[in-house]
């Protein structure tokens, strides 16, 4: 269909993170011009590990990002496993290709993924497409499109006109705040996370994602790099977490604080098993950061006329399901498909909202209820996480049913994904 973009300003994207850059690459694939407004004056590979589920990897492949390129920033995940407080396995399943998906799952460094996407945008769209040091401060819909207001690093106020504005500006989204000035504060359920990376020998399959403990006290760890060919050592991403009384709210005023291991290691001092020494792993990290586990109550709608929310701005969620970044990539592709069907218009944004808002809002609430870690909750209720024979306290059929429900809701059940048509058919472009 004819997009009419010859007579329209570009689509504006607020935010140069994983969601915003994925959408920019999607628009380039479709032949639709865009501009990315990013608050940071320089993009750097910040962050720690994340998982790309097969549904998101499929979309990256269809954007022309290769398996080799993803292998260079992470590792193909082979297993997802849960272990009880006594160190015994509760549940495990293969992941990615080993689970029968047509696409792998990847554990990667978040910052390296962002930089890979950034480099692709620069290569394909040109450096002028990304405007660094532009912090979007608001918007105004009008008959012709939308105006985005922004401030520069020097404090200068300015604006740009666009045909549409897509807000990929994260949990503290200014655009979402304008849409919903009375939205509830950021929700903290009481979980505190400490995150770091340690160099170590990958265990089990060598590419396993492992959750150990209970819902209220657990450690998650997995490799995010290929093992060194000489030493066999890889970068192990880990998250140590406890849940506390949240009635007084998050009190330290810092959402991302560097801490010393002695501040929290006492919670895990006895977690030394014959297959993993958790205190030793925590102590070997150079830099450790403390975060509250936070999300937002789901928004009733992601669209205001010619403005749409995407990624964390739309649906920031607890990381328990390892699908926040994956969903941002899928958002970008679903929105691109809506543009093909309805042109560069508010109708396209409405279609995108109709397809995703309700179903992903349900995932946000499901993750708040522990996501796939609900198995550990149930185990604790049955035997406080300690058992001799898992089948006697928690039969495999029950465990499988809980996981099946979660994967279906999150959109990456094997057959559901393998048999689904491409969100955007290869070669599709605006004519």
Task: Give a description of the structure.
The chain is globular. The chain has an eight-stranded mixed β-sheet. Strands 8-2-1-12-20-19 form a six-stranded mixed β-sheet. A three-stranded antiparallel β-sheet has the order 3-7-4. Helix 1 runs parallel beside helix 8 and helix 2 (54-62) packs across helix 8 (324-342). The chain has two domains: 5-53 and 109-185 and 299-370, FAD/NAD(P)-binding domain (3-Layer(bba) Sandwich), CATH 3.50.50; 187-295, D-Amino Acid Oxidase, Chain A, domain 2 (2-Layer Sandwich). Helices cover 31% and strands 26% of the residues. The mean pLDDT is 91. It starts with 10 loop residues before the first strand and ends in a 13-residue tail after the last helix. It has 431 residues and is α+β, with helices and mostly antiparallel strands. InterPro entries: FAD-bd, FAD-dep_Monooxygenase_BioMet, FAD/NAD-bd_sf.
């Amino acid at each position: 269909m004819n997009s009419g973009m010859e007579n329209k300003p570009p689509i504006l994207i607020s935010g140069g993170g994983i969601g915003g850059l994925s959408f920019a690459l999607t628009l380039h694939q479709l032949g639709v011009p865009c501009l990315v407004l990013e608050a940071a004056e320089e993009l750097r590979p910040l962050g720690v590990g994340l998982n790309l589920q097969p549904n998101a990897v499929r979309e990256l492949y269809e954007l022309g990002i290769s398996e080799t390129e993803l292998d260079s920033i992470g590792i193909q995940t082979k297993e997802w496993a849960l272990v009880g407080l006594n160190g015994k396995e509760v549940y495990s399943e293969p992941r990615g290709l080993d689970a029968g998906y047509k696409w792998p799952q990847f554990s990667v460094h978040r910052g390296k993924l962002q930089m890979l996407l950034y480099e692709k945008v620069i290569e394909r769209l040109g450096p002028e497409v990304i405007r660094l040091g532009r912090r979007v401060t608001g918007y105004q819909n009008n008959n012709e499109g939308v105006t985005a207001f922004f401030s520069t690093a020097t404090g200068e106020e300015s604006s740009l006109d666009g045909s549409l504005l897509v807000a990929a500006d994260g949990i503290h989204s200014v655009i979402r705040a304008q849409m919903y000035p009375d939205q509830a504060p950021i929700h903290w359920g009481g979980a505190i996370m400490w995150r770091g990376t340690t160099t170590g020998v990958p265990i089990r399959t060598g590419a396993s994602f492992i959750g150990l403990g209970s819902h209220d006290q657990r450690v998650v760890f997995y490799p995010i790099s290929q093992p060194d060919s000489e030493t066999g050592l890889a970068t192990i991403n880990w998250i140590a977490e406890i849940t506390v009384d949240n009635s007084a709210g998050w009190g330290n005023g810092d959402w991302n604080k560097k801490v010393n291991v002695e501040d929290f290691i006492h919670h895990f001092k006895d977690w030394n098993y014959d297959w993993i020494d958790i205190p030793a792993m925590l102590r070997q990290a150079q830099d450790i950061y403390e975060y509250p586990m936070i999300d937002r109550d789901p928004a009733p709608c992601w669209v205001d006329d010619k403005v749409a929310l995407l990624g964390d701005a739309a649906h920031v969620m607890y990381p328990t399901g390892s699908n926040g970044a994956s969903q941002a990539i899928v958002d970008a592709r679903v929105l691109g498909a809506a543009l093909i069907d309805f042109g560069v218009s508010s109708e396209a944004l409405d279609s995108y909202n109709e397809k995703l808002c309700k179903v992903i809002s349900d995932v946000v609430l499901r993750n708040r209820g522990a996501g796939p870690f609900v198995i550990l909750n149930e185990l604790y209720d049955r035997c406080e996480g300690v058992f001799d024979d898992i089948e006697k306290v928690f039969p495999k059929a029950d465990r499988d049913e809980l996981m099946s429900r979660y994967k279906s809701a999150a959109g990456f059940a094997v057959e559901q994904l393998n048999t689904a048509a491409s969100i955007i058919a290869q070669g599709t472009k605006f004519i």
